[in-house]
Design brief:
It contains 18 helices and three strands. By secondary structure, the protein is mostly helical. A three-stranded antiparallel β-sheet has the order 1-2-3. The structure holds acetyl coenzyme *A.
Length: about 400
């Protein structure tokens, strides 16, 4: 590891690294990834163990505080989050200002950004207590905000949080309960939702987290920073990939058409890529994808879906890609987005909601990373350099002489 900051001070030299492929932007104690081995740890704990044994709020506590909670700490944390699940009633008017066919991610960018206007009493970032209140507010209100975006999208009345339910149950309830009908959340589906949230909770310095850190480095308030992260997450190369992966599986349609798409993915003159394959850091199987695959099967079994053509295409595509020279050589394995789309569709979400669910779950990672940055005494405003490739100095020419 080269300390570029001191190298720059001594020599004036700086590095050119488009896409930050080999440049660390910060020190962090939150998440560790070994991309070659396919390992993901949060505060040292393997993702497999967290997803198997704990719930999402336990993972939130771990990311925020650095340790797993005791029983009393967990009960207190759950209570604090639950107390903040409601949003200010005036926020309803904010939703109504959007076109009813607006993409829910467009709504999310606006509504989360506007939280700083509703909760400006927790925007003093110099006060540790206010930082924690803003963090709790974000974790607590994101399911409500996301469910409201969904209800607005499908034209149904908003459903208020039910605080005797777990985090995932409450979210499913706010999305799928309708007036005058009994809605009971299936424990298997709630557990699957919980696992999806845990798997997406943090992933070190990906594009959206780096965006949150960069926005936060100027001292911007946490709600504005999270809105910036949501905007970045929306891109199809990042959080939009599960929506794109499901669309791709539907476009392929049947197992016999897979070779045609594999050929397209390999053709350098064709911009097509197999969505849900490849990762900047994992050059091995994404550990989250394995858990996601298992969760997909559990959800389909619970819902009695025996023959899902999309799942058939996905399983066969994975099999072929894992034995294909091109994919082996380039170390392209399925990432989490490959299976999450099928699961979310089975749970009843339209594809337009997929990235919203990712944003909901990633909020804790963003806010934990933001807090870590603010609390780091060596923190500076993020200010990348550039290699200027434009015109050299030249003289102004008056408009009648051009
Ligand atoms: N299908 C076909 N070829 C691919 C794919 C793919 N999905 N991904 C990478 N490649 C090829 C590239 O064409 C490139 O080939 P080359 O060496 O001949 O030029 C090589 O593999 C390396 O690809 P890069 O784009 O340099 O890898 P990078 O690390 O920049 O990109 C990314 C990673 C963006 C995830 C890429 O693999 C991709 O576009 N995948 C599809 C989108 C996707 O699933 N995104 C989700 C990411 S995970 C997340 O956000 C939760």
């Amino acid at each position: 590891v080269i300390d570029i900051a001191s190298l720059y001070k001594q020599t004036g030299a700086f590095t050119y690294d488009p896409g930050f492929t080999s440049t660390a932007s910060c020190e962090s104690k939150i998440t560790y990834i070994d991309g070659d081995e396919g390992v993901l740890l949060h505060r040292g704990y393997p993702i497999e163990q967290l997803a198997e044994n704990g719930d999402f709020l336990e993972a939130c506590y771990l990311l925020l505080y650095g340790e797993l909670p005791t029983k009393a700490q967990k009960a207190d944390f759950d209570e604090r989050v639950t107390r903040h699940t409601m949003v200010h009633e005036q926020m309803v008017w904010l939703y109504r200002g959007f076109r009813r066919d607006a993409h829910p991610m467009a709504v999310m960018c606006g509504v989360v950004g506007a939280m700083s206007a509703f909760y400006h009493d927790s925007t003093d970032i110099s006060d540790p207590q206010q930082r924690m209140i803003a963090s709790i507010r974000l974790i607590a209100k994101m399911p409500t905000i996301a469910a409201m975006a969904y209800k607005y999208h499908v034209g149904q009345p908003f459903v208020y949080p039910k605080n005797n339910l777990s985090y995932a149950e409450n979210f499913l309830h706010m999305c799928f309960a309708v007036p005058c009908e009994e809605y009971k959340v299936s424990p298997v589906l709630a557990r699957a939702m919980e696992r999806i949230f845990i798997l997406h909770a943090d992933h070190e310095q990906n594009a959206s987290t780096s965006t949150v850190r960069l926005a936060g480095s100027s001292g911007a308030n946490p709600f504005a920073c999270i809105a910036a992260g949501i905007a970045c997450l929306w891109g199809p190369a990042h959080g939009g990939a599960n929506e794109a992966a499901l669309n791709m599986l539907a476009e392929i349609g049947s197992v016999d058409r897979i070779p045609e798409y594999i050929a397209k993915a390999k053709d350098k003159n064709d911009p097509f890529r197999l969505m849900g394959f490849g990762h900047r850091v994992y050059k091995n199987y994404d550990p989250r994808a394995k858990i996601m695959q298992k969760t997909t099967h559990e959800v389909l079994k619970e819902l009695g879906i025996k023959d899902d053509p999309l799942l058939d295409v996905a399983m066969e595509l994975e099999k072929i890609a894992l034995t294909d020279e091109y994919f082996i050589e380039k170390k392209l394995y399925p990432n989490i987005d490959f299976y999450s789309g099928i699961t979310l569709k089975a749970l009843g979400f339209p594809t337009t909601m997929f990235t919203v669910l990712f944003a909901l779950a990633r909020t804790v990672g963003w806010i934990a990373q933001w807090k870590e940055m603010i609390e780091d005494p060596s923190q500076k405003i993020g200010r990348p350099r550039q290699l200027y490739t434009g015109e050299p100095t030249r003289d102004y020419v008056s408009i009648d002489k051009r």
